[in-house]
Design a protein that fits this description.
The protein contains 18 helices and 19 strands. It is of the alpha/beta class. Strands 7-6-15-16-17-14-18 form a seven-stranded mixed β-sheet. Strands 9-2-1-13-19 form a five-stranded parallel β-sheet. A hairpin with an 8-residue loop joins strand 15 and strand 16 (345-349). It catalyses: protoporphyrinogen IX + 3 O2 = protoporphyrin IX + 3 H2O2.
């Protein structure tokens, strides 16, 4: 029997679910409901008339693993191959990543030399920590904070500096609160399967998804890409998906379409919209943030709403800066800042190094993005609704001037406050997910969860969650 499916949320997860469902003969109609004015969620790019491109959300995608291949397969199917900007592993932006510690920039150790020698800010060679790790006994807990797991296995110095910074760079989160099991499943599973991260990575820890690679995905591994973007910025991806879906006869796309309530009807759902309109469907895939879904569920599903409410996101301020000339003292991807150094400032990305194609043509310029706040937003800047863009801009330019020893003023700036943009997978997140999914199946709710709140926050993870949600409904497309 053919189904009608509503997808709530037109971010990259909702678009991905829609993309896969639109190809299935089992679906007579897919209705995508997006409350805002554009699709693509946090994938936002500013394209200036002079040709410069600035990213306000994710700025590059890693091609690794099954989820990385899956995204490249979709890019290929959308006909975007010629728009790809690849960055290879031997590019300076892939090799040089920095940490800002005790008022100085330090290149992260890379290659054999960097691992066997003592490289500041560390007080001993990293290899010592890694070799010692094999002898550390296995953890007994069902879950553990990233900080606890990593300090147990790799020592507190490496954890307090490098792992703390990494969690701020990826999740804008606090490694003392984040779950190891949910944030870094391959490392958690490596310890479980082999008793050691190192042995697990060398010998494999079993399982793993298989995604057959497209020619583009094969090219990415042959050319050893470390990341990629698109010529007109990452927003090209949701725009291409929108174009692809617009011409599908079984798809209806709606912007400015906010859901007010969801009511189960026994054989599906009745969706009441804010404008009073009512839509009846057989199944709902929610790619909304967890708290947004909680607010539209019926009172009868209160236990599910409460579980969803427990997944809290953080707010990140993103400040784009453009300077005249090539002014960077170091070339690389950028630098991260551990929380003991500056709680409000997460890191600075040197955008013009990996993607010089996004610089305005004619004469050298330097584009930087400063990331601020995250789990420390309120503490550092106060209420996200009340903070002024001027204050964030001053804080960002001051940090850039001091970290990179610059005495110049940017010629162009853009400040965005991304409210509640990264869900935090706190301790026990996996159990919460298990309980939610069990509740949905026990109560025969024709509902599938997708999006960043659940199974991974990266662009690749979110796109893959949309595909998984679609396939759970109609099988492999």
């Amino acid at each position: 029997m053919q189904k009608t499916v509503a997808i709530l949320g037109g971010g990259i997860g909702g678009l991905s679910a829609c993309f896969h469902l639109s190809k299935s003969p089992q679906v007579s109609k897919v209705v995508l409901l997006e409350g805002g004015s554009q699709y693509g969620g946090w994938l936002r790019s500013t394209r200036r008339q002079d040709g410069a491109v600035f990213e306000h959300g994710p700025r590059g995608v890693r091609p690794v693993g099954a989820v990385g291949k899956n995204t490249l397969n979709m890019v290929s199917e959308l006909g975007l191959e010629s728009e790809i900007l690849p960055v290879s592993n031997n590019h300076v932006a892939s090799k040089n990543r920095f940490l800002y510690v005790k008022g100085q920039l330090h290149k992260m150790p890379s290659g054999l030399g960097g691992v066997v020698r003592t490289v500041p800010p560390f007080s001993r060679p990293i290899l010592q920590n890694v070799l010692r790790e094999v002898l550390v006994s296995k953890g007994k807990e069902e879950d553990e904070s990233v900080h606890s797991f990593m300090s147990r296995r790799l020592g507190s110095e490496l954890t307090d500096i490098a792992i703390d910074s990494l969690c701020r760079g990826v999740f804008a989160g606090d490694c003392k609160a984040l779950s190891m099991r949910s944030c870094f499943p391959p490392l958690f599973n490596a310890e479980r399967a082999r008793g050691s991260i190192l042995l697990g990575m060398l010998l494999g820890s079993g399982g793993g998804l298989h995604v057959p690679p497209s020619d583009l995905a094969k090219r990415s591994s042959k050319e050893s890409w470390s990341q990629w973007s698109l010529k007109k910025g990452m927003q090209m991806l949701p725009e291409a998906l929108e174009e692809f879906l617009k011409i599908k006869k079984n798809v209806e796309l709606h912007k400015h379409a906010s859901v007010k309530t969801l009511n189960p009807t026994g054989c599906g759902w009745e969706i009441k919209m804010e404008d009073g309109c009512i839509i009846a469907v057989d199944h709902v895939i929610s790619a909304l943030p967890a708290k947004s879904l909680a607010s539209v569920l019926p009172p009868a599903a209160q236990p599910l709403s409460e579980l969803l409410q427990g997944i809290s996101p953080v707010t990140v301020a993103v400040v784009n800066l453009e300077y005249e000339g090539a002014i960077l003292p170091e070339m690389g991807f950028g630098h991260l800042v551990p929380s003991f150094e500056d709680r409000g400032l997460l890191g600075v990305v040197y955008d013009s190094v990996p993607f010089p194609q996004h610089n305005r043509p004619g004469g050298p310029t330097t584009r930087l993005t400063v990331m601020m706040g995250g789990a420390w937003f309120k503490e550092a800047f106060g209420d996200p609704d009340k903070v002024t863009k001027q204050m964030l801009l001053e804080r960002a330019t001051q940090a850039v001037n001091s970290h990179l020893s610059l005495a110049v003023t940017p010629k162009w700036t853009y400040v965005a406050v991304l409210k509640d943009c990264i869900p935090q997978y706190h301790l026990g997140h996996w159990k919460r997910l298990e309980t939610m999914r069990k509740y949905i199946s026990d109560h025969n709710l024709l509902l599938t969860l997708a999006g960043a709140s659940f199974d991974g926050v990266s662009v690749n993870d979110v796109i893959f969650s949309g595909r998984t949600a679609a396939e759970a409904l109609v099988g492999r497309v």
